[in-house]
């Protein structure tokens, strides 16, 4: 790569969304409460490109002037709050997906919304907006699964940056069971795969959970990291939340409290 700035693709609309208090217990149960708290910040394409140039696929490390460094599974867990221990995240690539969606989400998408085993994220956004005031627990559960599926779409984006792989949806049938999967491990594997693909094929764009790479760079190289006015305010959030301008904290009693963390 000749110092080319990569196009960094990211699907982050869900990280701007308000979270209904009624789905917060489901986020806790599933292990996705941390990533839901993470919030959104823009990617620094130049910073990410500089690190990709130093990636060595043979050792899965970044070759820096001071030596080698890498992103570990523990780093992913601390940055995102995702579970890093447990079963491997695997799923089906073939199924009657409209039926699966109807069963687990309470609604079947139109045929044009499904391509192969991927679903348009825009359909999830339109179909599962604000939860009506008076609905039963099953409807809230459907909305919670849709919200988590959108989160997954932001972590594991496809090449169009507009779809989510439906292989993940059956893993959300039992949300307590979903928390026993190593979502952080899958996240790290996907990031490694994207780094390998770009370096080996000399591609000019990259996707995946690039926010992890950016936060890791900020944390390890303080000279390039933004200043944080009050990091102690985010005591129960994943590490990555300290770089977001507004952070919403959900304690166990489901009261919503706003904290502000200003980036200079």
From TrEMBL:
<feature type="domain" description="Aminotransferase-like plant mobile">
    <location>
        <begin position="31"/>
        <end position="243"/>
    </location>
</feature>
<dbReference type="InterPro" id="IPR044824">
    <property type="entry name" value="MAIN-like"/>
</dbReference>
<protein>
    <recommendedName>
        <fullName>Aminotransferase-like plant mobile domain-containing protein</fullName>
    </recommendedName>
</protein>
<dbReference type="InterPro" id="IPR019557">
    <property type="entry name" value="AminoTfrase-like_pln_mobile"/>
</dbReference>
<dbReference type="Pfam" id="PF10536">
    <property type="entry name" value="PMD"/>
</dbReference>
């Amino acid at each position: 790569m000749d110092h080319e700035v990569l196009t960094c693709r990211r699907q982050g609309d869900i990280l701007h969304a308000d979270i209904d208090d009624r789905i917060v217990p489901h986020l806790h149960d599933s292990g996705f409460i941390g990533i839901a708290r993470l919030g959104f910040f823009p990617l620094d394409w130049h910073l990410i490109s500089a690190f990709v140039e130093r990636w060595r696929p043979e050792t899965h490390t970044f070759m820096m002037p001071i030596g080698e460094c890498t992103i570990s599974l523990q780093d992913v867990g601390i940055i995102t709050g995702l579970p890093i221990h447990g079963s491997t995240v695997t799923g089906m690539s073939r199924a009657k997906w409209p039926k699966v969606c109807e069963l687990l989400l309470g609604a079947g998408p139109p045929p044009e919304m499904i391509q192969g085993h991927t679903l348009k994220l825009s359909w999830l956004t339109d179909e599962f907006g604000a939860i009506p005031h008076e609905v039963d627990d099953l409807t809230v559960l459907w909305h919670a699964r849709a919200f988590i599926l959108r989160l997954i779409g932001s972590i594991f984006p496809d090449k169009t940056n507009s779809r989510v792989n439906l292989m993940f949806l059956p893993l959300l049938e039992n949300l307590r069971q979903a928390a026993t999967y190593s979502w952080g491990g899958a996240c790290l594997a996907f990031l490694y795969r994207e780094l390998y693909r770009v370096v080996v094929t000399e591609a000019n764009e990259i996707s995946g959970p690039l926010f992890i790479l950016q936060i890791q760079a900020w944390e390890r190289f303080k000279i390039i990291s933004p200043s944080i006015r009050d990091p102690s305010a985010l005591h129960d959030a994943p590490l990555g939340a300290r770089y977001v301008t507004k952070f919403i904290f959900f304690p166990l009693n489901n009261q919503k409290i706003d904290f502000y963390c200003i980036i200079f």
